[in-house]
Specification:
The protein is mostly helical and 464 residues long. The protein has 19 helices and 3 strands. The chain has a 3-stranded antiparallel sheet. Helix 3 packs across helix 5. The longest helix has 26 residues.
Length: 464
């Protein structure tokens, strides 16, 4: 009994940000090293090339006829090719002796969206590449070092996001430690920094929106820098800047100051994003048969109602895939083989997230105007995402929108679960005591560690 009482006291004293340090490090590093190089996401190899190109000085990809890409050392190219020529296991990994091969070869990236990404999400992998060059590490060791660099900055930013956010700390903890989030964090991918910056931007903005305090220069500068960098990481997430409108007018001198501050935040970020898009949009070539950007735009203009109906049709057709690739991960067999978090487990994790969002309440209140801003951001982002995928990843007049993955929704997910905040007493009619107690924390901890352990076993058995 004394042992159980001691355990209860220890669990009750756990804070979300401290739990994140422990579980995030243990499972993050485990997935980082157990998952073979370039196997976290389908285009991790291309993103690795992008980082190498930036390290070579290619801020903008080089145009080569219809192709666009970067120059990469020959030994790195061979490493990536060998990785994808067969099902990689621990028994057939080949190692080179180091990055001594200085022969450069052009690699075409024009058929991947990676070719249009800015240098911002690859700054940490570039630092890793420079360290690898100093120690003359092998190609595989270099890949792992680049992964660790991405994971390191993700870990720091998400820790401060959980610590900063005034509400839903436990929800943000569960979102940060979802299998899909953790996999993205341990990859050489722009998604890693995008998720971390989004979480921290949301946390800092909510702190301003939900606390009765005037907007100081340092607080505004923090939000401005986070928003600006986020926009250059992946331009579509610039929609999150609209969250600034959830800050009440009473935190400003008047309406003029509030909307003036918003324009100062919004306009430079959008201009920078559009400028980068103008520099790189002509590099991309879709691999989809019968694809034409002009014809897709004409289709939308001539069939606006039919186009809008594609959204619910697509959702009803693909919701299971969205759910699995949001909480866990699911990829076609021709990419990585049959490694999938079952729908039942993905649904369970999502259900626990909803339950935690109902219980995870604080002293602050989120009013209807602020929730309207949250819903607006979610809807605009969802419409923009599906429209973008329709234009770039579907044949002309497609009957469904392909290319959308649940992982794209992770950066805005905290806003969705905030819609449940303050609503529990109405939904469940006060039948349950809504407070963070031993059972609540035990449910969160057991759900996170149980599912991460389950997935870790699946990955280990598949590759080893």
């Amino acid at each position: 009994m004394k042992y159980l009482d001691t355990m209860k006291i220890k669990i009750l004293n756990f804070q979300p940000e401290n739990i994140f340090i422990i579980i995030g490090l243990i499972y993050g590093l485990a997935f980082l090293f157990i998952t073979p190089p370039l196997y976290v996401i389908p285009d991790e190899g291309a993103q690795f090339y992008k980082a190498i190109g930036l390290n070579q000085g290619y801020i903008i990809p080089e145009k080569n006829g219809y192709e666009a890409g970067v120059y990469v050392p020959q030994n790195m190219i061979e490493t990536v090719k060998n990785t994808f020529n067969y099902r990689l296991t621990v028994n057939n990994i080949s190692y080179d002796s180091g990055n001594h091969n200085t022969t450069l070869k052009f690699v075409d990236l024009s058929m991947l969206a990676v070719v249009t990404y800015s240098p911002v999400p690859y700054l940490m992998p570039v630092i890793a590449l420079k360290i690898a060059a100093i120690f003359n590490t092998s190609s595989f060791a270099t890949i792992y070092l680049a992964r660790f660099a991405n994971f390191f900055i993700w870990f720091i930013l998400v820790y401060f996001a959980i610590r900063t956010i005034p509400v839903h700390k436990w929800v943000l903890l569960m979102l940060a430690l979802m299998p899909m989030t953790l996999f993205e964090a341990t990859s050489i991918s722009a998604d890693s920094l995008t998720i971390a910056l989004s979480f921290l931007f949301i946390a800092c903005t909510l702190r301003l929106a939900l606390r009765d305090q005037n907007l100081s220069r340092i607080n505004f500068l923090t939000v401005f820098i986070l928003g600006f960098v986020l926009t250059l990481t992946k331009s579509i997430y610039s929609i999150l800047l609209l969250l600034f409108l959830s800050i009440p007018v009473k935190n400003f001198v008047n309406y003029k100051e509030k909307y003036g501050a918003f324009l100062i935040l919004f306009i430079p970020s959008i201009i920078a994003s559009l400028y980068w898009v103008s520099l790189t949009n002509h590099f991309y070539r879709s691999v989809i048969p019968n694809w034409s950007l002009i014809q897709q735009i004409n289709f939308i203009e001539q069939n606006p109602l039919k186009f809008l109906l594609l959204f619910p049709v697509t959702f009803l057709n693909s919701w299971q895939s969205y759910l699995c690739s949001f909480t866990g991960f699911i990829y076609p067999k021709e990419w990585f083989g049959d490694i999938t978090l079952p729908l039942l487990i993905s649904s369970f994790y999502f259900a626990v997230l909803v339950l935690v969002s109902l219980y995870d309440k604080g002293e602050v209140t989120i009013n209807l105007k602020q929730k309207f801003v949250f819903i607006t951001v979610i809807l605009i982002f969802s419409l923009a995402l599906m429209t973008f995928e329709f234009l770039t990843w579907n044949p002309v007049g497609s009957s469904i929108i392909n290319g959308v993955q649940g992982r794209y929704l992770i950066p805005i997910a905290p806003l969705f679960f905030l819609l449940f905040y303050n609503q529990s007493k109405y939904l469940l009619k006060k039948k349950f005591p809504f407070k963070i107690n031993y059972s609540f924390k035990l449910l969160v901890l057991s759900t996170i560690t149980g599912i991460l352990t389950f997935l870790l076993v699946i990955v280990f058995k598949f590759y080893y």
